[in-house]
Amino acid sequence: MVPATAMRVPLDNNSLYVSTIPLTSDTFHWALIHIDEVGVHTRHHWAAMTRDVKGPEAYVSQNLVGGAHTKTDKSVVLGYFKVVDYTPLDVATFRDVCQTIFPTSYATADENRSHAITCRTWILHILARLVSELRAQEVELSVKKRSTAQSNEYANCFLWKKPFACVVEDV
To answer: For 36-90, what is each residue's pLDDT tens digit?
Structure first.
């Protein structure tokens, strides 16, 4: 079950995390959570630019006032997965990297998908630049595996009206 209120999740300063929230049929929305040296959290993701989820998409950066939480809006966060070999960047430099990954977007989400542009592939391109392509693939496999397990656990918790625990793990 999704808690009525979001609980704060402590994350390390000078770190980068991949977060996932469940979508449909074992797919997830992926985002990057950047935490600077003083603990300011920003969420970076490839997302819809309008209320129409099939409409245009682009890079979005959002300050997370109060830090990371167990849910975003109405969605539960399955986990925060720390990229352990990330070398810290200031948020302005990090944003510059994020903005250059897919500098242009197609008119619709479906067109983006047909060109392999998703929130997950966007993150993999960023990780390939920041750590390495091989390491990005390893992070992808680990996050997919743990997010799938967490998604199944969340479904069971929802069904049996039990509390669900968001994980924080190193990858």
So the answer is: 999 999 999 999 998 888 889 999 999 999 999 999 877 999 999 999 999 999 9
Provide CB contacts within 8 A for 106, sequence distance 6+. Answer: 112, 114, 115, 117
Report the C-alpha dihedral over residues 94, 56, 18, 161, rounded to 10 degrees.
150
Which residues fall within 8 angstroms of residue 105, CB to CB, at 6 or more apart? 56, 57, 58, 112, 117
Side-chain half-sphere CA neighbours of 79 within 13 A: 22
Residue 64: burial class (beta carbons within 10 Å; 0-12, 13-18, 19+): middle
Type of residue numbered 30: W
